[in-house]
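User: I'm writing a tutorial on reading structure tokens. Could you give me a worked example: one chain, its sequence, then its tokens, then a sentence or two explaining what the tokens reveal?
Assistant: Sure. Here is the example chain.
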Amino acid sequence: MEIILAKTAGFCPGVKRAVETVYERIGKGKMFTYGPIIHNKIVTDDLEEKGVKSISSLDEAEEGSEIILRSHGVPPEVYEKINEKGLKFTDLTCPYVKKIHNIVRDNYNEGRKIIIVGNPTHPEVMGINGYCENTAIIAENIDGLKDLDPNEKYSLVSQTTFNTSAFDEMVKALPENVDIKIFNTICSATEKRQKEAIEISKKVDYMIVLGDKNSSNTQKLYQISKKNCENTFLFEKICIKQLKRLEKYAKIGVTAGASTPPCIIEEAIKQ
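And here are its predicted structure tokens:
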């Protein structure tokens, strides 16, 4: 059995910084994460056992506690409410996401209508939308961009973990008679990870994608790999029973989402 492990598998810099910071702060005071620190149940369950609870509302935070803002970012009103409540906070928003916030705010203030390419229910997209007063057009595919007004001026950004080839197809299909500024804000780590998944999945018998099923970028890796390798599987972690499905002399590709901890990848390779 030959295993090809993607060099880009696992934590991206933004997620690594967020997770390491939270673990470093354990035991130094009451701390809550505003939403799960990452989309990985193994990590969030471990943090909860260590006393770090994820909250969905700032009203759940105890007086004097610290709020950790995760890498997905938050809309402006969250910062306002934190200040109103007098809570301490640490902002771990990914720099790539911060860049999108700035683009959206500046272009919206110039009078341009904002388009966000991404999943409307994803926390990153919801946070970005806050920087244009929640007025953005949010599109997951070209169908969501069919009714653009030629009399309007638009600026288009993307969720950092969006499928790069799907983004390119959407841009190509945009109407030529509409004024649209295009900002490809898919992060470089996502682009590299998706590109490597494509390359590996084309030359293996089986492709394993490691990560949480609720992770957007992990799902994208699965979809990309499945196009090239029919025998593609998405596992939160590998166990012996799962590996027994695979042929003894098979060539196996392994990649992992940006929120998959190193221990899960190491465990899979050692099986």
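What the tokens reveal: The chain is about 40% helix and 20% strand. The longest strand covers residues 153-158.
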